[in-house]
From TrEMBL:
It comes from Chitiniphilus purpureus. It holds the Pfam family Lactamase_B_2. It comes from the Bacteria. Residues 17-188 form the Metallo-beta-lactamase domain. This is 3',5'-cyclic-nucleotide phosphodiesterase.
């Protein structure tokens, strides 16, 4: 199974694209500005979108996706997320004021957008993978995702601060090979990381002590804020040299 990194930055500018990961050809994990890297034909093949949470950098291109492929599809795009995420989409995005309500277009009985509640602990199958929602801790209700190809498992944290329930769920995965985990802020902005419930390098390395079997896991750092991305990554590597850590790259393809 392949996971294509369309965007993995914590911001925009100078080629940075926000979070969007393409699983196979038909499944998207988050729908940030990285989604704009796909061709029209590639966009039209997306059947499912699994959202970690409702913050703008993770949903920015979802409304445009549905509008763009509307005339090219006969089946709806299903968006999966926790109940709070889907409620935010209904109230604040697909409300006829910010964007048309595609759950009712072309008709209430056959909308091009289908919203499907997906809570922590549940598992669904898509793109030949088992996709399990995991608990995390952010400023809004949010999820991480475990992607099980049958050969190995990849976990994408989404946005989170330290969370014992997350590490408990991760450590219960017997085939974990890859952990994509966010580190948004450099250590000099640790107070901002704490209030916004993101990791700084110091906080991340401390949290990784809860990871079972770290020698078996490739750790990839995502969601670096552009202003300090080089500094943040240097701090992660300086403190976490005993882990297998690298920076996640836009355009990268991970096989698992």
């Amino acid at each position: 199974m392949q996971l294509r990194i369309l965007g993995c930055s914590g911001g925009i500018g100078a080629g940075n694209r926000t979070t969007a990961l393409l699983l196979g050809r038909h499944v998207l994990i988050d729908a940030g500005t990285g989604l704009g890297e796909l061709t029209m034909d590639e966009l039209a093949q997306i059947d499912h979108v699994f959202l970690t949470h409702a913050h703008m950098d993770h949903i920015a291109c979802l409304p445009m996706l549905i509008d763009t492929v509307f005339s090219k599809r006969t089946q709806p795009i299903t968006v999966h997320g926790c109940s709070a995420t889907l409620a935010a989409l209904r109230e604040h995005v697909f409300n006829w004021r910010i964007w048309p309500d595609f759950t009712a277009i072309p008709s209430p009985e056959a909308g091009m957008l289908r919203l499907c509640t997906f809570e922590a602990g549940e598992t669904r199958s898509a793109a030949g993978c088992g996709i399990t929602a995991l608990p995390v801790r952010h400023t809004v209700p949010a999820l991480a995702y475990a992607l099980d190809s049958g050969h190995s498992t990849l976990v994408f944290s989404g946005d989170t601060a330290d969370c014992a329930e997350f590490w408990g769920a991760v450590n219960a995965l017997p085939q974990l090979a890859t952990l994509i985990i966010e580190t948004a802020f450099a250590d000099h902005e640790q107070a901002l990381a704490e209030v916004s419930r993101h990791f700084s390098p110091r906080q991340l390395i401390a949290a990784l002590s809860q990871l079972a079997r770290p020698e078996q896991v490739q750790i990839l750092i995502t969601h670096l804020k552009p202003a300090d991305q080089e500094l943040t990554m240097r701090e992660v590597l300086a403190s976490g040299g005993h882990y297998r850590i690298a920076r996640l790259a836009q355009g990268q393809t991970i096989e698992f």
